[in-house]
Amino acid sequence: MLQCDKVNESLPVNVTDEVIQQNPEFSRLLNLLSQHINSDGTSVQAQKIYSREVEELLMDYEIKSQECSLSSEDKQFQAALQECLTMAEIGDYVDCNPEPGSSSTLLGLTREEIQRQNPYKKHLPFLQQKLLPDIEDRLRLKCESLVTFHDPDNGTESDRLTFAKASQLPAMIDSECHELKQMKVKLNKEKHRKDKQFWLYYQTLLDSLSLLEDLICRYRLQNQTEHDTVTTEWLVSKCDGLCLKIRLTELQILCETYTVETCRALSQIRKYLKSEHNETETEYTNVSQALKAYESVGMGFDSLVNEYSKLKNEVENKQWALKEFQQSIENKDR
């Protein structure tokens, strides 16, 4: 098949092969348009949008019928619209052929034959007259919702101005996407620069630490022994000085505590304590000798002492009784 025939079949145009050969860029443009426009001149994207809107409209009718009873006109419109949508979907499967370039169709059917089976074919103008305003209103509301979502502060503006902004929304979104991409590229560059700077600082820090370690090993540790020796000698001298200072303080305290008068008083106290000690020792010696004398008498001495104590107590008791008896007699004589 010639290239002009492919273009004429995919688009509602009639160009010759000579025009295609003389204008290759025009041919390229037509090929690009064929990806977005059907052979009947309708937009592929618009057709998908209309189909989705029709499906949503039928779904709304179905939900509405569950909530309340539909009018007879709405029921007829719903049934006709559902039937037309079904026929259109069946027509989409007619050209489903795994072999590209083949003219055969599914079961040998054509779109015209399927459309002839549509019982509402005669009512298509009426359906379109009622359907198009509904779809336009739905699309308008969606566009306004998109504008409001994109710009929440847009709620105070009029519907006409909001719809006008909706027509500019794709360009605005493309511009914002372009700005975001530029910002992303800029952020990636900044991140790369920061990472490079970080690793540079990190390597510099490692080099500095290595140099510091080398300096410590070379100068600090070599003189550490001498430094420790000097420090030890200084600490020993300081300790000796502190010991002498403590001894001096002790002697000062002793001198301040034991004056001449204090020493004299302490001497007298010592003499008194010594004499008391001698007397106590003498008394202790006498008592010890008496105890030894008692012990030399033997075990019978204890019994004699006990008997003596017992007799002495009896004598005292009898003397007390006799004295009481005499007093009682004297009291009677009176």
From TrEMBL:
PANTHER family (UniProt xref): AUGMIN SUBUNIT 4 FAMILY MEMBER, HAUS AUGMIN-LIKE COMPLEX SUBUNIT 4
CC per GO annotation: HAUS complex
Stated name of the protein: HAUS4
GO biological process: centrosome cycle; spindle assembly
Domain of life: Eukaryota
Matching Pfam families: HAUS4
Stored InterPro entries: HAUS4, HAUS4_met
Any one GO molecular-function label of the UniProt entry: microtubule minus-end binding
